[in-house]
Amino acid sequence: TPALAIRGLTKVYAGDKRALDGIDLTVEAGDFFALLGPNGAGKSTTIGILASLVNATAGSVQVFGHDLARERGTVKAAIGLVPQEFNFSQFEPVGEIVVNQAGYYGIPRARAWEKAESLLRRLGLWDRRKDQARRLSGGMKRRLLIARALVHEPRLLILDEPTAGVDIELRRHMWQFLRDINAEGTTVILTTHYLEEAEHLCRNVAIIDDGRIITDTSVKELLSRL
Ligand code: ADP
Ligand code: ADP
User: Fold this and answer.
1) Which residue's alpha carbon is nearest to atom 12 within ligand 1?
2) Which of 93, 96, 131, 158 could be joined to 135 by an S-S link, Cβ 3.0–4.6 Å?
3) Helix and strand numbers, DSSP H then E, in the chain
C-alpha cells in the first residue's frame, strides 16, 4: 500500500482560482519525497487538503489505503504536519506544546512526556522545555514544530517549506534529523522551491507548476536531465 495516493485532485478557490487542476501523485511507503515548485504552484493547497485544513473540490486522497473523505480520523492520526507558520501559543511552555498535541490523539500524558522528551532531546530543545515558546529563536521554533508533528508517531511526516529562512548550519542539522526519521521508517514528504533541498534529501520528486504535476521521477533522473 502506498503512503499516499492522490487521484484527480482539484481545488478551485472562491473567485474561480484553480489552484490544483487534477493532480495524480503516488508516494510509496518509506519514501523521502519532494514536492518541488515555484510560489503559487499549489504546494500549500495540496498539503492543506492532506491535513484536512482545505476541502478539495474534486478527486480522491488515500493515506496508507485509508480514504481521506471517509476515514478522516484514521488519516489524521497517520499524518504529522509541520506548517510554515509558528502556529502555537507563544506563551505556552515548549514541553506543554508538544505534550498537549499528543492529547488531541488520545495519548496519555505520561506516555506523551516520554515521547516528547525523546524528541526534544534529539532536537536540542529539552533544556528549554519549561521556557515559553516566545523565548526560542526562529530555528528553535522550527524544531519545536517538528517535535510537535512527531509526538503521536505518525507514519507520514509532511513538511511545508521546512527550511525557509533557516541558516545553513541549522538546515544541515534539520536535514540530518529528517534523514534519521526516514531511516527509522517514517515516510517523509516535503515541499520546497529549492532544487538543492530535494537533491540533498529526497529519493523521488514531483514538480508542480500552476496546479499541474509536470514531472514525477527520481531525484537522480531529474538531475541527470539538467
Ligand atoms: P504554493 O504553496 O505552491 O506557493 P498555494 O497552494 O499557496 O501555492 O497557491 C496556489 C494558488 O492558489 C495561488 O495562485 C494562490 O494565489 C491561490 N490561493 C491559495 N490560497 C488561496 C485562497 N485561500 N483563496 C484564493 N486563492 C488562493
Ligand atoms: P518543577 O518541579 O521543576 O516545578 P514540574 O514537575 O512542576 O517541575 O513541571 C514543570 C514543567 O516541567 C512542566 O510545565 C513541564 O514543562 C515539565 N514536565 C512536567 N512533567 C514532566 C515529565 N514527566 N517529564 C519531563 N518534563 C516534565
Assistant:
1) 19
2) 131
3) 8, 10
List the grid coordinates of 180: 534519521
Q: Rounded distance, CA 192 to CA 215, Å?
A: 15
Residue 126: phi and psi, rounded to 5, are: -65, -40
Q: Write down the pLDDT at residue 111.
A: 97
Distance 57 CA to ligand 1 centre (A): 14
- The pLDDT score that the predictor gives to residue 218 is 95
Degrees (nearest 5) of the Cα angle 65, 185, 102? 80
CB atoms within 10 A of CB 176: 11
Residue 19: CA count within 13 A, CB half-sphere: 20
Strand (E) positions, the chain?
A: 4-13, 17-27, 32-36, 58-63, 66-67, 79-82, 156-160, 187-192, 204-209, 212-218
Model ipTM value? 0.72
pTM of the model: 0.89
Ligand 2 nearest-atom number relative to CA 109: 23
- Look up residue 64 and give its DSSP letter: T
